[in-house]
Each structure stands twice: as structure tokens, then as C-alpha cells.
């Protein structure tokens, strides 16, 4: 029990970070469902509604990372915690992609029930309780027909690399430079805001245009989704390992 309590950071921080990103991964398939049933506006609204649930995990996560800094954990321990978080998210992302049809079908039921007059909570639980063997009368076979668009892939890799590493990186610098840790940790909000602006002005509009044109939307969406998984599996861990090697 003492070992579990003493090493809380190795499972609690990756768990909270993973749940935050899992909800975000799942919420993105609301737009895919809206694309198939031509309910793009409500689908985007439900994506944002689902996305707000990530704030709960974010509010819990940030103080715990700050606690590691205040308790002066060694950089190697901090890096290990970060790497566990990244790989856990990558595995969850792969799981979401594997179950993409089930998630998309859920959102189709959710959106349909909501549009037909059900409240958001009623529609949510009704969609969960639907008979899974009941055939969905929407053809979503195109969800498997995609070609990786490397333009979207590389742009998404750049943006999500900032998004994934920004907060952890600022806290890492606060850990190795405790004299300036208050100023440094405040930069996490600046970096996160910058990444959010890039997402808002580049990724979201590109997907919206692809939806409205009904041309290569699935390829664009999957290219961006693949990029996120690639960031957490390869790019973000590589950045932190390099950072540790330079600063240790």
C-alpha cells in the first residue's frame, strides 16, 4: 500500500491525462456521424458539448503536475510519468480508432434522438441503451475508405506536438529551474492558448470545408486522427527524451 501511495504520480497523472484525451478522441466522431446523416451543425455542437467534459480531468490534472514540481521530484521521474501518459493516450487512441464504427453508430443514434425532440441527457442514455443488434439504417461503410492526406497529416503533427508537449514541458522547466517556477508554469496557459488558436484557425476550418464540400472528408479526418496517435507514440516522447538528454 505504501508503494502505491508513494508512486501515485505513475498511475494517477497518466490516468487523468488519458481520460481527458479519450473523451476528446471519442467526441471527434460526432462530426463523422453528422457527416453521414447530414446533420453537421448539431454534430459539431455535440462534439463541443462532449469536449467540455475534458475540463473536469484537466482541473484535477494540473494541480497534481504542479505538486510533482513543488515536491521537487527528480527530472527522470517526471519524464517517466510524462512518457507513461503519452503512451497510454496513444493506446487509447488506437482503441478508439478500432471501435470507430460503434462510436459513430452511437453518435448517429444520439444525434437522431436529440433532433427528434429528446433532451440531451435523455438522448444520450437512450442511445446507450439501444439494442446493439439492431441494424443502423445508415450506410457508414465509407468510414473505411480513406487515403492518408500527408498535407493534413504533417500540419496536424506540428500543431498537436505543441498541444501535447506544451503543458508538460513548462512544468518540466519549472522543475529544473525552481527559482522561476511560478513564471514558467504560467507559460503553460500561453502555450496551450497558442496551440488552441492553431487548431481553431487551421484544423477545424479545414474539416468544416471538407464536410461542406462532401469531398475527401473521411481521408482528411483520418489523416488528422492518425497524426495525433503518431504524435503520442513517436514525436512527443522523442521530444521529451531529447529534452532530458540535453538538460540532465
Set out the fold topology.
Layout: H1 2-6, H2 9-37, H3 40-51, H4 54-70, H5 75-98, H6 100-115, H7 120-129, H8 150-176, H9 181-213, H10 217-247
Helix pairs in contact: 2-3, 2-4, 2-5, 2-6, 4-8, 5-8, 5-10, 6-7, 8-9, 8-10, 9-10
Structural write-up:
Helix 6 (100-115) crosses helix 7 and helix 9 (181-213) runs antiparallel to helix 10 (217-247). The chain contains ten helices and no strands. The protein has 248 residues and is an all-alpha fold.
Looking at this protein, list some descriptive labels:
248 residues; mainly alpha
Helix coverage percent:
over 70%
Q: Taking Cα atoms only, what radius of gyration do you get, to the nearest Å?
A: 20 Å
Give me the number of helical elements. 10
Task: Give the biggest sheet.
Answer: none
- Mean pLDDT level: 82
Would you list the SSEs in sequence order as H and E? HHHHHHHHHH
What is the number of strand segments? 0
Structural class: mainly alpha
The low-confidence parts are: none
Form type: elongated
Q: N- to C-terminal separation?
A: 31 Å
Strand content: under 5%
Provide a quick synopsis of the model.
The protein has 248 residues and is mostly helical. It is built from ten helices and no strands.
Amino acid at each position: 500500500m505504501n508503494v502505491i501511495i508513494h508512486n501515485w504520480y505513475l498511475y494517477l497523472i497518466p490516468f487523468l491525462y488519458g481520460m481527458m484525451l479519450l473523451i476528446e478522441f471519442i467526441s471527434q466522431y460526432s462530426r463523422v456521424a453528422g457527416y453521414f446523416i447530414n446533420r453537421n451543425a448539431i454534430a459539431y455542437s455535440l462534439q463541443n458539448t462532449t469536449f467540455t467534459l475534458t475540463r473536469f480531468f484537466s482541473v484535477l490534472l494540473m494541480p497534481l503536475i504542479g505538486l510533482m514540481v513543488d515536491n521537487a521530484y527528480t527530472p527522470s521521474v517526471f519524464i517517466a510519468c510524462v512518457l507513461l501518459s503519452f503512451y497510454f493516450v496513444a493506446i487509447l487512441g488506437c482503441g478508439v480508432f478500432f471501435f470507430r464504427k460503434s462510436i459513430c453508430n452511437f453518435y448517429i443514434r444520439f444525434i437522431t434522438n436529440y433532433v427528434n425532440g429528446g433532451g440531451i441527457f435523455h438522448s444520450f442514455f437512450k442511445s446507450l441503451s439501444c439494442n446493439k443488434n439492431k441494424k443502423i439504417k445508415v450506410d457508414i461503410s465509407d468510414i473505411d475508405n480513406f487515403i492518408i492526406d500527408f498535407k493534413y497529416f504533417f500540419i496536424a503533427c506540428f500543431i498537436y506536438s505543441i498541444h501535447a508537449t506544451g503543458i508538460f514541458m513548462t512544468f518540466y522547466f519549472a522543475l529544473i529551474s525552481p527559482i522561476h517556477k511560478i513564471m514558467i508554469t504560467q507559460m503553460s496557459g500561453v502555450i496551450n492558448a497558442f496551440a488552441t488558436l492553431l487548431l481553431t484557425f487551421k484544423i477545424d476550418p479545414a474539416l468544416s470545408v471538407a464536410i461542406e464540400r462532401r469531398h475527401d472528408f473521411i481521408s482528411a479526418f483520418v489523416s488528422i486522427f492518425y497524426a495525433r496517435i503518431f504524435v503520442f507514440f513517436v514525436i512527443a516522447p522523442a521530444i521529451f527524451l531529447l529534452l532530458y538528454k540535453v538538460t540532465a
